[in-house]
Amino acid sequence: MACFLLPKSFCFDLESIIVKFWWQKGHDQRGIHWCTWNELCISKEQRGLGFSSLINLIFFGWRLINYLNSLLAQVLKAKYFPTSNFIHAQLGNLPSLT
Question: 3-state class of 96 per DSSP?
């Protein structure tokens, strides 16, 4: 989502699914909200769970896996994981903000 513009409605629906997973007790049963959703979206470096980063990684990874011939996929593969694929790539010393 950092590279591609997605509709706000889609992002809202996706966030709603994740919120229900974390807070809902069961089907159509409300659970206790132990902290706010914004607190869950704080980066891990700031002692949050980094959920927004997780969503970005899911969609970004999906694009890298499904569009191997795209310019972005080729550039990132050459620089960050030339001997493997996106799934098995290791975090290097100077990771990209992408």
Answer: coil
